[in-house]
Design a protein that fits this description.
single chain; 256 residues; 6-stranded mixed beta sheet; 40% helix
Length: 256
């Protein structure tokens, strides 16, 4: 199992945001996490990618222990292990987090040179290959403010892929995009799924989650209410909370 989390708890200012969350992700698997706003989805992702620390629980990524419970206390691995785990994970944010003063190509090259210590020539070749793959070769010398939102998000995906992560996390990758730009980003993620890239995707795109995911997790109020295959969660759920959420989502989709 590439990612394993057990008994994850997280509170902010006395409010419990994650309550005993446990999940597993197999290599090559696509896991979609759905649920209403405020259910803890993004916080869970931030804990798995070391942007937040957990209060309790165990996390193992690529057979390396990030945090373990020792005498009722969450103890994190030494910084060297944390760094190794960070190299195994990539994260694509809602907002694109590109360097505005760097060209598209340099945005993809710079992390390779700084983090992986790649030679400039190799980094440039990898950047070029990824831009071609994501249909962005003609924008290599453009700057982020010259791109559409969809193009910026594809550059952010290319930048994450350039570091060769074992697992790629997406936090609502289309939420900052206009509806007409959403499709081009989802298409890229679908192609990665076909290539068996291990991915964990927090998304509000229900049709996308149903079509792409191998495993779907529905969260609400900091807990996992239901999980299973897309067919089980979307087609045969017996959980009333899941039914209410999906019904409301479909109604909103029709109204829009």
């Amino acid at each position: 199992m590439l990612v394993r989390a057990e008994g994850i708890k997280k509170s902010f200012n006395g409010t419990e945001v994650l309550k005993e969350i446990s999940l597993g992700v197999e290599e090559g698997e696509v896991v979609a996490i759905i649920g209403p706003s405020g259910s803890g989805k993004s916080t869970l992702l931030r804990c798995l990618t070391q942007l937040e620390t957990v209060d309790e629980g165990n996390i193992v990524i690529n057979e390396k222990e990030l945090v373990t419970m020792q005498k009722d206390k969450a103890v994190y691995a030494k910084s060297a292990i944390q760094h190794q785990i960070r190299m195994d994970t990539g994260l694509v944010f809602q907002s694109f987090h590109l360097f505005p003063h760097y060209s598209v190509k340099k945005n993809i090259m710079d992390p390779q040179i700084r983090v992986l210590k790649r030679e400039k020539k190799e980094a440039e070749k990898i950047a070029g290959n990824l831009l071609a793959k994501l249909n962005l070769s003609d924008r290599a010398d453009a700057y982020p403010n010259e791109l559409s939102g969809g193009q910026q998000q594809r550059v952010a995906i290319a930048r994450a892929l350039a570091l060769n992560p074992k697992v790629l996390f997406f936090d609502e990758p289309t939420s900052a995009l206009d509806p007409e730009l959403t499709g081009e980003v989802l298409k890229v993620i679908k192609e990665l799924a076909k290539e068996k890239m291990t991915m964990v995707i927090v998304t509000h795109e229900m049709a996308f989650a149903r079509d792409v995911a191998d495993h779907v997790i529905f969260m609400d109020e900091g807990t996992i209410i239901e999980e299973g295959t897309p067919e089980e969660v979307f087609g045969n759920t017996e959980k009333e909370r899941t039914k209410v959420f999906l019904k409301r989502y479909l109604e909103n989709a029709w109204e829009s």
